[in-house]
Every structure is written in C-alpha cells, then in structure tokens.
User: Fold these one by one.
Assistant:
Number 1:
Amino acid sequence: MSADSRSSRRRPGPGGARRSTAWVFLALAALPGAAWADEVRDAHKALQAGRLEEAQKLFERAAKQGSAEGRAGVGLVYLRRRQLDQALEQFQAAQKMDPALAWGYGGEAEVYRRRGNCEQAIPLYRKAGELDRRFPEALLGLGDCLVQTARVADAISALQDGLKWGRWRPRFLVALGQAELARDSLRDAGIYFHQAAQEAPEDPVTRRALGDFYLQRGIGHNALPEYRAAVALDSTDLDLRYSLGQALYLDQRYNEALNEYQYVVAHDSSYAPAVLAIGNLYYLSGPNDPRRYADARYFLERAVRLAPQDAKAWSLLGRTYYYVGQKDAALQALDKAVSLGATGKEMYTVYGRLYTDRREWDKALEAFAKGDPTPNDQLRIAQIHALKDSAGVADSIYRAIVDRDAQSGEAKFALGELGKLRFRQKRYDEAVTYLRQRIALDPRNDEAYYYVGLSYKELKRYPEALDSLRIAAQLAPDKGDRHFWLGILYAQLDSTAEARREFQRSVELDSTNKVTASVAYQQLGFYTLLDRDWLGAVRLLEKALALNDRNIQAWVWLGQGYQNAGNRNRALEAYNRALQLDPNQPEAQKGKKSLGASG
C-alpha cells in the first residue's frame, strides 16, 4: 500500500477524549481493475473533504460488490462520526471478507484505543503491522497505546522506526513528543513538536500538535496561531475546530469560542464535547443574563443524552436546573453527577442551597462545607444554625458578615438577624442596638421596626414601643401581626378605640392564627361587652375559643356575655370551663356565685 495514498485522522482536542496526533487514516489502495476501485477512490476523496454522507454511500456501494476495503471504509466514516460501535462492526466484517486486509485489524484496534482499552488494541495493531510493513497509522496507534499503558520506553523505541518513513517523519516526531509528555519531559516534548512543525509547516497535524502542547500547559494565546494555521490547512476537521474553540475559551475570547463550537455542532449534531461546551458557555453567561440558563439547559440536556456517563455534563445540568427553578430535577442531576465521580466547589454550593430549601439542615451544612459559599450562602448557613439552636455559631457568622462589609445587602440582613437573635435571648437592649443599625441602612424595613417595638415593650418603654410598632404597621399594612401587637400596646395604654381598630384589622388579615387571632377576638369580644352588645360579644368570644380552647380569659368573658344575655346554663358552662383551667380564677368564681351555683 502506498504511503502517498494515505489521509490523516486525529483524536478530539483538549476537553474531549485523550488526545493523540498518532492516528492517521489510510486511503485504501484499490486493486487494479476491480469493479469497485472507482467507488473506493472517490469515497476517500469525499472522506478527506469532510463529505461524510457521500463517502459512506460510495464505500457501501463498493462493499456490496464484495470489497473488504469498501467495508473498512464504512468503518472509517463511522470513526469520523465517533460512532464507535458501528465502526467496530464494519471493521470486523471487513476481516471476515478478507483476513489479509491490514485495515480490518488496524481499524478495530483504533476503536479500542478510543475507548481507552489499549490492552485489547495493542495485539491488533501488531497484527496489522505484520500484514502491512508500511502501515504508519498502525505504528502510530501502537505507540500511543504503549504510552497510555505506561510503556513509554517501548513506545519511543517503536516510534523511532517511523522517523525513516519520509513524509511520515513529522507525524512520528509528534508522536514522540506525546511520549515525552507522558514522562513529564516538557523540554524534550517541546523540541519534538517544534521540529515537526518546522519540517512540515503545511501539515495540519504538526500545527495542531504544537497547539495542543501549548493548550495543555494553559497557554491559550500561544496555541491560537497554531490552531488557526491547522484549520486553514484542513477546515473540515471538526476535532480541530473544537480544539480551536477550547483555545479561544482558555484565552477568554468567549464569543469566538462559541462560534467554533456552533460550527462543529452545525456540521455534526452528535458531537457531544462541542454540545457540552456550548451549554457551559451559556451557563457562565447566566449571572449576567438569566435568560441564558434556558439556552444552557437545552444544550446540556442534549449533552447528557449524547454522553450519559459524562459527570461534568450532569453537574452543569444540575446547576442549571437549580437556576431555572427546577429544584427536584436539579437534585437528581447532581446526584447522577456525583455517582459518576463529579466534584467541585460550585456543585456542592448548589447542593447546599437545594438541601436548605428542602429543610434538610444537616445535609445542607455538609454540602456547604465542601463548597465555596457566597456571603448570601453564609446567611443561609447562619439561619440553619439558628434553627438548630446553635445560636452561638449563627451569631458568629452574622457578625463576620457585618465586619466584612457593613454596607452590603448581606450585612443589612445579618444585622436584622442579630437583632432577632438577641430578642429571643431576651437581651432587649442589644436587640435594639442591632435593629437600629439595620434601620439606619434600610429605613423602610418593617421587620426591624417591629422587633424594636417588641423589645421596647419588654423593656416597658411603652411610648417608644408604640412609635416603632406604628411605623411597622404603616410600612407593612397587610401583615396581621404588626396590627395585633400595635393593638396590644394601645390596650396597655388604655387607648380603647385605637386598640379595637388594630385588633379588627389584624383578624381581617389573619383570622386563623391560634395565638394572635384568638387574643384579638378575645379583646374585640371584651370591647363589645363594654358596648353592652351581649350576643355580639358572645360571637366574637366563641371565635376566640374555636382557635384556642385554653384561653381562660375568653371563657370568663363568654360566661359574662351569656349571663348578661340571660342564658344561665351556657354562662355556668363557660365559667366552669375557665375554672377547670384555673380553679382559682376569681372572675369565674364570682360569676358562678352570682348565678347561685355552688363550688
């Protein structure tokens, strides 16, 4: 077989499967005079030009005429499409058609190499080389597999033989550079790659290899001119276009990278690494434009269908689901990613948020410990500790947030939480201090005024409590508890009309709260008793007791309402219920006595 009839084929670039510039496809030589010779020749021209549909049809036509080379050519097309199962089937069929065809074994070996199963590939490469002593593709594949199986010295020894093969010499220099990389000899690897590019500057394989070398070292701007030169020489190689996109991405030229990835996907919609790369770019754009998360979801869902064992794809999809509000799907996707070996601080940070939303506190804290929590996440962590009665830990986190940047939105929230913590600890003066700081930063925060008012109430500083609770109710007119506690203050200050108005407003907004609504109805019932509207008072007091049947004062006033309405039996029943709860309740005892009932 003539070396001049051979054509190149390379592995995916950085970010795809393990790269090797070793593999180059052989244009199969036609037997002189065979009926299928023209089809095979034309098929290889189409394959080299990237016209895969045309190439496959021509190879199939030759194969149906009995050509083993045609059947192996179909395998080459499937390799180009990265459809390895189908390629393997074709190469094995070619072996049966012609056991002496080297490409049948070399192609099967290449499938195994791409799957990462070099131990199975190596004997097949050797057999292919025995059948065709001038089969550089097989020797290059063998060298790469020897490198992958840690037999680097054997690989270098084998690849050295290829330096004698004329126009193939630059390709073997590339392969030797890859071998030197495997033993961390960057200097020697660089020498081989540069020498290859100098000897064959018009060969896209050598230019790409040098680009790969720079990209692996994280030097995207040096990789770019090599990749651009390689693309100019072979614009049909989608793997090469993908590598160019990776270099552009590394160099933070995201729009240009996106263009390359889109080109690849437009020409091969099953190219999973490029589909994933597009999804990743859209995901990274999400913080600046949340609409991009929907775009990311579309591509990432495609990516996991194309590569269901790709941990990175599942991790990105899970995080994207979180940002588009699909939290159950997010958790399932992240669990899948972890089962495949995914790690990463951002992934665990999102895990922490998901578990927080599910109120699974221990799992949330464990996930945040593995992540990189933002200041907003620190607030979540502090709230979890507060809910778990770890007030000291919560307090420490809140104060750290305030100390870091007292003007930030997170600091405002932390000051409010510190104030509420102090209120629950009955350290009311300290609560007021923190809450006043919150108000200074956020004058329209009704919650801060609310807790300031409650703190002043506990300190018996009623005028200040009343002022704060008035503001809280003004800022949040639709929150029933604000009106309830304002009503309590008015009641303590004997401002009956104002108290009645606030209690009425509180039950209009929330008539089901077993604490506040029960007391509000109780007080409204009392005021109605003062109006001598006995049956109206009874209705209100029965509402209070329907919410809380252990409300002693409501039972007493209900008894008074029934007594004044002339319903002696119901009055006695109410007084007795009050005395069951408190046998020494003086008003209930007095009520029973006035009705002539004993004990």
Number 2:
Amino acid sequence: MSQHAFKLAQAGHEAAPAAGHGADAAAGHAAAAAGHAAEAAGHGAGHAAEGGIQLGVHWAQHTPWGVVHVDTILSTVVAMLVAILVFGLLGRAVTMRPASSKVKRATAIEAVVEFIQKILTDFIGHGASKYLWFIGSLFVFIVTANWLGLLPWRAWELAGLGEAAAHGLGLNAPHGLVYHAPTADLNTTAALAILSLVMYWVSGIRANGVVGFIGHHWFAKPWALFPLRMLEDITRPLSLALRLFANIVAGHVVGLILLGMAYVGAAALLPLELFVGAIQGFIFATLSASYIGAAVAEHH
C-alpha cells in the first residue's frame, strides 16, 4: 500500500468510530473505502506493469544537466553507424564508369541522391545542391532509424539476449540492450526539428543578409502580423517534431497489438511500416527543404 493510500485508509478507520452515527460515520466509511480503492489501484497498476508491455520506458541516467535517455543515445549511434556503413559502401561503387559488379550498388545510391536532389530543386531552386548534405542526412538517418526498429527486437528481449549483453558489458540497463527507434523519442525528433530551424535561419541570413532576412521574415508589411510570424517559427519545428514522433509511436503500438493477437497480423503490417518509415523521412526532408527555400528566396 502506498503512503498516500495508507493515510486515507487510516483516516477513514479513525473517522468512522469517532463520528458514531449519521453523516459523520458515512463520511468516515467513505474515506476508508477511498483508501482501499487507492491501494487496489496501486496493486493493479503494478501487476499491469509487470505483466504487460511497457511503452515509453527509457534507460534514464541522471546527470548534473538533467535526465539523459541512454537507450535513445545508443540507438541513435547504431542508426548513424549503419547509415554511414551502408551508404559509404554504396558510395564507393559510384564512379564515372563503374564495373559490372558495382552497377547495381551505383544505381541504388544514385537513385537516392537524385530523389533528394529533386526535392531540393522543387522547393529551393537555383543553388539547391549546396543543401544536399543536410537534407540528405536528415532523410537517410530518419529512414534508417525507422527501418531498424522493424527488426524482431521483441524476440531478442524475450530470449533474454538483451539482458545478457548488458550484464556481460557491466551495464545497468533496466531492460537490457535493445534497439529502440530513436525517432520514437520526442527528444530526438525535437533535436532534428531544431536543427532544421537553425539551418533555415542561417541559410536565409547568408542569402539575404541579417537586415534583409529579418526585414522580410519578421518585419514585412503589414507589421501587425509580426506576432504571427514569430509564432510560426515556434510551430514549424514543433509540428516537425510531433508529427514524426507521433507517427512512429503509433506504428509501434499497432505493431505490438497485432503481435499480441497473431504473428501473421504483425508480419502483414511490416510492408506498411516500411512505407510509413520511408514516408516520414520524406515528409521531414521535404518540409525542411521548403522552409529553407522560403528563407533563401530573393525578396524585393
């Protein structure tokens, strides 16, 4: 029984005899009932947490600067290393005249680059290639992080391999070493959104100067809309962060529900999750490119 529930029950038991009869006795019994109900709820929640699947429970580490989600950081590093390894190997195959054994790899990386280049051309226009590194990195990281989360990590957990790996490395991971899509953590999506915000600010200042950018971005006529323009700079990264986070978490929830019902249902959901993981990377990259395009446009 929690301390709060115990106090409620104790207060109820003490109030009932002291009050005697009538309304006071009824109040005492009601307080006692409330205490027992709180105790039952606490036990029920504990059993649900022990027997069910917990969502949003992170390996939290307290530091002087705040709480750090260690599992999210490790998963982010894994996603980055996989993306660098895969696209690094594909990139090495791109030459002016690739050998026959490298044609398929060269075609794959060129298709990704051309896809991102088209996004930049549509939304930024002239000089869009200078932003390929940023928009391309966003797209590749988000897609890689999302797709890695579709691997059968639940089977890894049930087999106890995650806990064994954490124990072997001497890590105090509460749920073992298991990959969780970092895009399912609002801290990650917020960080990506802030990077996008800073990038289009910097790009706008470099293209039009400080006075030109601020004059058009915030203080353009009519000046009465200045509060709305300031609010827009808050809602843009907020919408980017929440959209990506909510869609990935929703996909995980649906996948876990289907996994609990039937493995066939979870397998049938896999193609849809692959599509959702890719489309979320596309949306994030496209919106970021559109913000940069609006910031670097010449204004007269």
Number 3:
Amino acid sequence: MFYFAQLGALLVVTVPLAIVIILCGPFDPHGKRIYRINQLWSWLVLRLGGISLNVTGLENIESHQPYIFIVNHQSNIDIPALVQGLSQFQLRWIAKRELLRVPFFGWAIWASRHITVDRADPLAAMKSLQRAKERLAAGISIVIFPEGTRSRHGRLLPFKKGGFLLAVETGTKIVPVTIQGSADVLPAGEWRLRPGTIEISVDKPVGVDGYRAGKLRGLVEQVRETIAARLQQTAEPRATGGVTAAPSATAIERPKRRSA
C-alpha cells in the first residue's frame, strides 16, 4: 500500500512540473531559469523517499566556475541526488537519446537543454559535443557518467573517453565525484524508493593541460583511480569482525589496458 502511495505522490509531483518545464523551455535558451524547477523536483523526490544526503568536499570547487563532473553511476536516483548535492551549480547531463521517448520525463530533459547522444550515429555524437561546448561557454557545468550505464553489481566499470575529450577540447577542469549508497535506496530495476543516506564525495579538480585527443589514457586512469579509491574507502568500514563487506560494495572492475 505504501509503495502505491509513494508512486502516486511521485507522479503528482513529476507530471505538473514536467509540463511547466516543457511549456517554458522554448523561451529559455540555456535552460537556466527552468533549472530551478528541476531543483524543486529533485528536492521533492528525495523528501518523498526519505532520502538524505551527506556531501563532502565542496570546499574543493568554486561555485562560479563551470566544470565537467565525472561521476560513477549506481542508480536512477543519482541524478536528483547530484542536483541537490551540487545545488550551487547549473548542471546539464549527457544522456542517451532513448530517454527522450519517456513520457513527460524525457520531454522535460529536452526542454531543460540537457544533451542527448545517439551513440549509433557518429555525426549526431559530434553535434552533441558541440552543444556541450556551448553549455560550458554559458557557465553551465556538465555531468557525465563515463561508465555509460548503471553498474548493476556495484563494480566500477571501464570509463569511456568522450567526457575527457570534451574537457581537453574546451580546457575545462574535471572534478571526480563519487556516489555511494544510491543503489541501496533505489536498486536497479525497481521503482520503490527506500529511506537511507546517499554519500557524495567531491574531489579536487583535475587540470587537462598537456593532454590532447588520442592521448587521454593517463587522464582517464587518474580520474578513475580517484573514484575507485573513494569507493574502497567507503567500503572498508563495513568489514567488521573479520567479515569482509559484500562484493557489490567493494569490488572494483579493472579496465583492460589499451593503447591511447
């Protein structure tokens, strides 16, 4: 019964706000004003789910400067959590184009000026890269989940290089951000939110000077290792009495070595 009440409340919150965003979006070129509606929606979603945030490391970044936030991905609740956890920033996502087909939610993504990518079309991917550059030039930060999908077993997947290429081509600093606990409050394949705390760790920005397209491996590995270390730090306290924490919390999938 509680599940249906929660689902109903989420629909009551989501649909009207999405309609407002869709109607106002065409009159807001960069989506900066309607982003405030996104922030309200994310706050309501977390409140309805009984979800709290513990954000650390905000002192590492400047609120007036746009960044490329590289973030691990565990759950669909990661997006509302980041909107609230990084509330001093205007954030836009690079997301798969298929999300635009989701009624109301997908349409609101389009109207909010988030960036969608058709991964099967190289030409469309280049256009998406150009839109991301325009957002950065307007002082908007970009959020990228470099694993490309949610990790369904808790392991950190190999990183794709698109977000790092964007950082190098625009000279934008990368900020590694680590999310822990989101898979516990909204597991993959489920829609029922569970009360709990999501940990968000913000590390120091990583400069991209000296890197160039085709020579990104060192940059990718540096950022990935930072996030992997954060995940390991969070997992270690769970091992007590000689019993190791569950593999889903501690295991890190190592990427295969590739030539840059």
